[in-house]
Amino acid sequence: MKICFETVTRQAKFLDPTRGFEPRTVSTEIRRDPLTGEGGRILAFPSRPTPRPDLDALVKLSREIGCPFCPDVIDKVTPIFDPDLIPEGRLHVGEATVLPNLGPYDTYSGLTIITREHFVPMSGFSQAQLVDAFVAGQTYLQRVREKDPTAAYCSINWNYMPPAGSTMVHPHMQPFAGSGQSNRERLLLDSSARYLVENKSVFWLDLVEEEQRQGARFIAQEGSIAWLASFAPRSPKDVMAVFLDRSNLLDITGGEFQTFVDGLRRTMRYFDKLNLYSMNLTLFSAPADAEGFRVHARIVSRAPISPVMTSDRNYFPVLHGESLSTGRPEETAAGLRESWSCGA
């Protein structure tokens, strides 16, 4: 079956104390991911503006604790690669430095230190800083493939700021590779391959075509990269970038990274405008011989819930495996289209 955007609305009824215990009906929207079939729920929580956080105390504390990624200590306290893999010990591209992850996620697990600066706000990264960081991560993964062709599964990941799971304020990405897939990679690759067999077409190209036709969640296309708001969001703001001509991230060109980073910075400035200061990003890839897949990025906002800094992940996504969102992707797309049109 071709692309299907499935939505089911469920209604809960109760007597509302804020309205003198009058009957009230509240709707919850359940959406199914058009590729994997996973459920995602959009909750009818009241929408309140997120106050702009004061990060000075957090940044100050992170400096006092000590940062191994700052220029005055990085060469002394961080590891270097096995010379069989990286003879020069660490990789350098512009400001970016790639070094081994002391807590590896797989056989080949790197850290890309993005900037010399200890803290960079959401909208403060330059084009060159982010392009160099992605190119550095890609270079590391290319070295891995040259040494070990069995490490066919790779990705570039970014936990930006502590609410997204980062243990360090100093901005860094995590490129890693191995011979096995993560659960998400397996689901995406298997579902893409099944769609190709059933429909004789590539899901990712069909998705972009259908989203562009419908318009509500389509943001923009720059060169060979299409930007969408995810139909079944994994957070209140969930943005996808699809590389229409690439299935393996090791084949992305420098020019394509330039185009991608331009859109990423627009997205980050949009998040910043909403006072969101944390996000997760993953650049998903297929093995070199895979068919029916396209490299794509998922960029999701993360934010603790005030006033007691409650986690934005509760039992539902953690244990039931179903995402919750209080934001509609159609609204996200509209906000980002405005950012694109005004050149923000």
Layout of strands and helices, then pairs:
Elements lengths: L5 E11 L5 E11 L6 E4 L13 H10 L8 H4 L13 E3 L2 E5 L7 E6 L13 H21 L5 E8 L11 E7 L4 H17 L3 H12 L3 E5 L2 E5 L8 E6 L10 H20 L5 E6 L11 E6 L13 H6 L2 E3 L3 H13 L3
Parallel strand pairs: 3-14
Antiparallel strand pairs: 1-2, 2-3, 4-5, 5-6, 6-8, 7-8, 7-12, 9-10, 10-11, 11-13, 12-13
Helix pairs in contact: 3-6, 6-8
Poorly predicted ranges: none
Q: Summarize the helix and strand pattern as letters.
A: EEEHHEEEHEEHHEEEHEEHEH
Q: What's the number of extended β-strand segments?
A: 14
- CATH class term: Alpha Beta
CATH superfamily: HIT-like
Strand order of the largest sheet: 4-5-6-8-7-12-13-11-10-9
CATH architecture descriptor name: 2-Layer Sandwich
Walkthrough of the structure:
The chain is of the alpha+beta class and 344 residues long. It has one domain (62-344): HIT-like (HIT family, subunit A), CATH 3.30.428.10. Helix content is 30%, strand content 25%. It contains 8 helices and 14 strands. The chain has helices spanning 56-65, 74-77, 127-147, 183-199, 203-214, 254-273, 315-320, 329-341, and strands at residues 6-16, 22-32, 39-42, 91-93, 96-100, 108-113, 153-160, 172-178, 218-222, 225-229, 238-243, 279-284, 296-301, 323-325. It has a 10-stranded antiparallel β-sheet with strand order 4-5-6-8-7-12-13-11-10-9, with helices on both faces. Strands 1-2-3-14 form a 4-stranded mixed β-sheet, with no helix packed on it. The mean pLDDT is 95.
